[in-house]
């Protein structure tokens, strides 16, 4: 009874600080869980936002004073999903995906990010279970974002691309950026001449040619293919240039490491997105969401020198061709050490398996220092299992064997150490 009274007083106190909210926050079944300030990433800037998490909803508000807030929107937890972004330039960030809203939020530290994600995930699971028990909303137990136009996409920030994400034409002051409101891509006007009804916006909005084709296929699969010509293409699509395959790289599947670096161009240092692929080539992009590289550098044969004090890495061409030399520097010492290790091994035709930079899927350890099990942040959010029990190494065994590598047409000696663990 005391806890219920404290909960009611807390909700009433929150309600008094928020302006613009229609209705009442105090409901019999509602429980207050958590509040806190997070940074919301928009297309161009980051803005502080105050979030109030309850047992069934998440309130998104804008600070207007020391303890006053303006209501922005309300997200029902039964239609929300929390995820780690595949690539994020903002540290300690996560995605909040809802039916009518989707955005990237960032915390002040890794601990705060993990706390928000796990608390949100727990509240979402509890609300889904409650909805199931009431025999309503069972279809919402897993947020299905496959329906065209049914859910708000995460809009790719303007600064994350320098070219159209479909035709790869570079943007200029005249050749403007547009956002596809169905998938979130940044595209040019030529690649987004279509409009479609989007359920989450309840109106027609601009969509790109890729989403237009997806919509056509969806209509066809629903037995309405006779109404739409699936082969219709815009003039821009028919004249679209073919991107050379040597300039295309799957950042997710084919990258050894990646990140923003400063590339030397005469006396200037330009910020670029570098990716070392598993083909041992260095791909250079202007921005990390670009679909086409500005150039590639095959690393085998290059001589690598580095200066830790200035965090500069030099690639010197093996035939002393100065125009093919390359110098770049990293933005911090940890990235410098990673890049040195990767490019040195690539220059010697060795693949260095390191965690991909900027992926944000860091491992988070639980409990005492003796515990050796860890999970990624996304695994923690998605999993309903308890944290694994501590493990203690019992015995070790070393063995070696030869393995044939077809790509190198040679055999290599592989050494392995097997460790037996017991659960405490």
Task: Give an overview of the whole structure.
The chain has four domains: 2-140, PH-domain like (Roll), CATH 2.30.29; 158-238, Herpes Virus-1 (2-Layer Sandwich); 245-347, PH-domain like; 364-423, no CATH class. Helices cover 19% and strands 33% of the residues. It contains six helices and 23 strands. The longest helix is centred in the N-terminal third of the chain and has 24 residues, at 110-133. The chain starts with a helix and ends with a strand. Keywords: Cytoplasm, Guanine-nucleotide releasing factor, Metal-binding, Zinc, Zinc-finger. It comes from Amphimedon queenslandica (Sponge). Its main location: cytoplasm. This is FYVE, RhoGEF and PH domain-containing protein 6.
List the helices and strands and how they pair.
Layout (H helix, E strand, L loop, with lengths): L1 H16 E2 L12 E10 L4 E9 L2 E7 L5 E8 L4 E3 L9 E5 L4 E5 L3 H24 L44 E2 L6 E2 L6 E5 L4 E5 L1 H16 L10 H4 L16 E11 L2 E10 L3 E5 L9 E4 L4 E5 L4 E5 L9 E4 L3 H15 L15 E3 L8 E3 H6 L8 E15 L4 E14 L1
Parallel strand pairs: 1-5
Antiparallel strand pairs: 2-3, 2-8, 3-4, 4-5, 6-7, 7-8, 9-10, 11-12, 13-14, 13-19, 14-15, 15-16, 17-18, 18-19, 20-21, 22-23
Subcellular location: Cytoplasm
InterPro entries: FYVE_RhoGEF_PH, PH-like_dom_sf, PH_domain, SOS1_NGEF_PH, Znf_FYVE, Znf_FYVE-rel, Znf_FYVE_PHD, Znf_RING/FYVE/PHD
GO molecular function: guanyl-nucleotide exchange factor activity; zinc ion binding
Which short descriptors sum up this protein?
424 residues; alpha+beta; seven-stranded antiparallel β-sheet; PH-domain like; single chain; 6 helices; 4 domains
């Amino acid at each position: 009874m005391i806890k219920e009274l404290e909960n009611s007083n807390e909700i009433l106190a929150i309600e008094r600080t928020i302006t613009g909210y229609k209705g009442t926050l105090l409901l019999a079944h509602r429980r207050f869980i958590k509040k806190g300030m997070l940074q919301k990433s928009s297309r161009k800037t980051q803005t502080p936002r105050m979030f109030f998490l309850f047992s069934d909803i998440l309130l998104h508000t804008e600070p207007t004073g020391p303890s006053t807030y303006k209501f922005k929107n309300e997200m029902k937890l039964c239609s929300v999903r929390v995820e780690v972004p595949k690539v994020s330039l903002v540290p300690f960030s996560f995605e909040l995906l809802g039916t009518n809203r989707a955005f990237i939020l960032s915390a002040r530290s890794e601990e705060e990010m993990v706390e928000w994600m796990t608390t949100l995930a727990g509240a979402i699971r509890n609300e889904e279970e409650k909805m199931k028990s009431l025999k309503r909303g069972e279809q919402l137990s897993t947020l299905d974002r496959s329906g065209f136009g049914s859910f708000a996409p995460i809009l790719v920030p303007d600064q994350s691309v320098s070219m159209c994400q479909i035709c790869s034409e570079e943007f200029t002051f005249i050749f403007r950026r547009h956002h596809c409101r169905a998938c979130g891509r940044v595209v040019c006007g030529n690649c987004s001449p279509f409009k479609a009804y989007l359920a989450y916006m309840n109106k027609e909005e601009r969509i790109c040619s890729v989403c237009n084709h997806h919509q056509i296929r969806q209509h066809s699969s629903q037995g309405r293919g006779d109404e739409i010509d699936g082969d219709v293409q815009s003039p821009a699509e028919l004249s679209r240039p073919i991107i050379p395959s040597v300039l295309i790289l799957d950042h997710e599947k084919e990258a050894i490491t990646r990140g923003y670096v400063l590339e030397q161009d005469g006396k200037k240092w330009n910020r670029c997105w570098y990716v070392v692929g598993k083909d041992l080539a260095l791909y250079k992009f202007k921005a990390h969401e670009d679909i086409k590289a500005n150039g590639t550098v095959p690393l085998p044969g290059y001589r690598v020198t580095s200066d830790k004090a200035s965090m500069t890495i030099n690639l010197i061409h093996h035939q002393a061709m100065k125009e093919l030399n390359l110098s770049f520097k990293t933005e911090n010492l940890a990235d410098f050490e990673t890049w040195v290790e990767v490019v040195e091994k690539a220059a010697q035709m060795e693949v260095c398996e390191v965690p991909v930079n900027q992926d944000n899927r860091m491992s988070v350890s639980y409990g005492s220092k003796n515990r050796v099990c860890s999970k990624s942040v996304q695994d923690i959010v998605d999993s309903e299992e308890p944290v694994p029990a501590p493990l203690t190494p019992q015995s070790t065994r070393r063995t070696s064997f030869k393995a044939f590598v077809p790509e190198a047409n040679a055999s290599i000696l592989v050494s392995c150490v097997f460790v037996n663990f017991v659960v405490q």
